[in-house]
Design brief:
Length: 181
């Protein structure tokens, strides 16, 4: 069984096979974790995003995931996924958020990547309620790790940047490995 690890910190510092970016459908970079990843990783990440978008009519779908170089980051790859904007909960937001985790995990598995780190997708400017997002993220990742489509993955890190998310995850991951470093 793969390990689930909880970390409070900066995802750009993670030395894993893939870090996940909470991007938007245009993959042009932005603020928050997206901005931090592009800033630290350098311009090759945006160039790779632009290449991918050429085959996709300029946008990815909400919940979709694509993979690029990680440029200068310590990770090997960046998986970019577009989280849902919270609109009150009646617009399929929960399903779209679960799709982000599912599609990122499948992509990592397909590339035979063993370690993947997730930020708390959609819980910043996209306004998804943090407790509900934590339930969805931990729930879908736990269940995927029992499926064949993700069996190459040996470790999933949840990297919480803010204290509120870290506490919400810590409450829900009792007994699993918690790394505060
Ligand atoms: N490492 C880990 N997590 C981080 C970091 C970091 N360096 N910086 C922020 N976070 P947000 P969203 C956390 O707003 O809500 C962008 O402009 C932060 O505490 O980055 O999915 C994109 O281009 C929060 O919990 O992403 C999109 O347009 C979480 O990352 C839009 O924002 C997500 O916050 C996406 O919004």
């Amino acid at each position: 069984m793969a390990r689930l690890v909880l970390i409070q910190g900066d995802i750009t510092k993670q030395k894993v096979d893939a870090i996940v970016n909470a991007a938007n459908t245009s993959l042009q970079g932005g603020g928050g974790v997206d901005g931090a990843i592009h800033d630290a990783g350098g311009p090759s990440i945006l160039e790779a995003c632009k290449e991918i978008l050429k085959d996709k009519g300029g946008k990815i779908k909400t919940g979709e995931a694509v993979i690029t170089t990680a440029g200068k980051l310590p990770a090997k790859f960046v998986i970019h996924t577009a989280g849902p904007v919270w609109k009150g909960g009646g617009k399929g937001e929960s399903k779209h958020l679960a799709d982000c985790y599912r599609n990122s995990m499948f992509l990592a598995h397909e590339r035979v990547l063993k370690t993947i780190a997730f930020p708390n997708i959609s819980t910043g400017v996209y306004g998804f309620p943090k407790a509900q997002a934590a339930e969805i993220a931990i729930g879908i990742v736990r269940s995927l790790l029992e499926e064949e489509e993700a069996y190459n993955i040996e470790e999933v890190r949840f990297v919480c940047f803010d204290e509120e998310n870290f506490k919400l995850y810590r409450q829900r991951m009792k007994g699993e490995m918690v790394d505060c470093g």
